[in-house]
């Protein structure tokens, strides 16, 4: 399996009528997660989130691909 | 500053209450002759209701203000008889481009499907829209448009509403059965009634400059994040009618709005943006902040709040005027049925329920856009810039770029007026959906589904050949047309004309079949505001009557 970079957000059982809505749902939740946190706290929360998601994905070749793309933009 | 537009001055006339020394009594009064109030007046008038429309001024909106009118608003204006002028004068567009620093990272097409009559959006200065609406209103015999009539007191007596109105000739009183409040964001009537509107103000300021220039930029919406000519902020460019261009600069909170409005501050900003010696002149400059808020309910007894008086959103999605026009579209058919004694007043509660849901959707989308455009924390800005950086190469990130989710109609899927599906359908035309347009062929030539639909309950009935209607079905259709709340049947067919003068539309390009998942026998009940009320795989008069009763609170 290779890294999926197409739009892939959804909520199980929820019907979306507008293409932008699932991505916006995710992005709002992401920004909400950081509400009222200091920059330092946010950095820790981001690190924890990456670790949880990485384990969920599991496939290290996919993770390496994502890491490479992420690093290119540093 | 230059002026491409001559403001009309509407004539004040001494109202009959003062001329004849008597108090007025009317079925419905509207306060506020902005786009929403005049649209409501026209809609009521063309349905045969006399309307009094009060406005404290005697001209149209000063400055271009709301410039983007969406496909759905145009479809409503079509039914009010104003869209053609708007589209002729306005600038039609479908494509928006988003730039991050110097690179384009994302573009969208508002109308990606073929075979729709109206474009995704037009840009037109608000004063033109208001002028067209007022002129249309003046052409209707039953609208009493009263300029320089300022409402100074309101009392809801339960069985009627009393108004005290000030004019250049003194004050007078009138009573009305129903009051439509369309008096704008500051809504003096909302204040007089002591009603709350809740939400938040965004800590940011934006500069609007309307610039007259000859430019060969394509007719598209261009949005910049952090451009070299205006670092760390956003900029929006839009073309309007008469070679007027709207430029919107984000300024941040800590600026002096009076200082920023001065031409000596504005002109260098625009020069830096245009990047050449192109000549331009300023037409209108304004610095604004905005609020995102709504009233808890839009109906208060006999007062019906609409448009900005009821809800306000950030401008990044053109969801202000467009949603106000949809408010009146939702309200007027319900009010008409209630006034005619054909539906209980509870039907007006569904105006509030449905438009509160729509307002929440508009608030959610415009707040999300605002949070993306003006991140509130360092972390939020890092994510925003990461999305913009990935967007050029990775489709998932393009979908996350949010420079405004532009106004589209709500799917009223939670409405109690809908009859839930009991059969399987593909596609998006679920109960509560706003109807999709499609080209049709009528007895008098080519037309569009949404030009034929609307203003009354209608039943779309699908057949292969329209001549094949049997006598029993024809009799059932005739009975529906004669009911207290009449339902007009429209036969949608591949060929043929239905007998007995039944309206027939030929689905010339198969788009209705495709968009509504039609099969022979498929039947849709449509509301007067072009939302789906119910649908079935076969026609059954009893089920249609039940769905109609449900859609009018008569169940």
TrEMBL record, chain A:
**Entry's InterPro entries?**
DUF2783
Q: Can you name this protein?
A: DUF2783 domain-containing protein
TrEMBL record, chain B:
Q: Does the keyword Transcription apply?
A: no
Is the keyword Iron in the record?
no
Cofactor(s) it depends on: FAD
Superkingdom of this protein's organism = Bacteria
Pfam families registered for this protein in UniProt: FAD_binding_3
Q: Where is the FAD-binding domain?
A: 26-365
Enumerate the PANTHER family for this protein: BINDING MONOOXYGENASE, PUTATIVE (JCVI)-RELATED, TRK SYSTEM POTASSIUM UPTAKE PROTEIN
Q: Which UniProt keywords apply?
A: FAD, Flavoprotein
Recorded protein name is FAD-dependent oxidoreductase
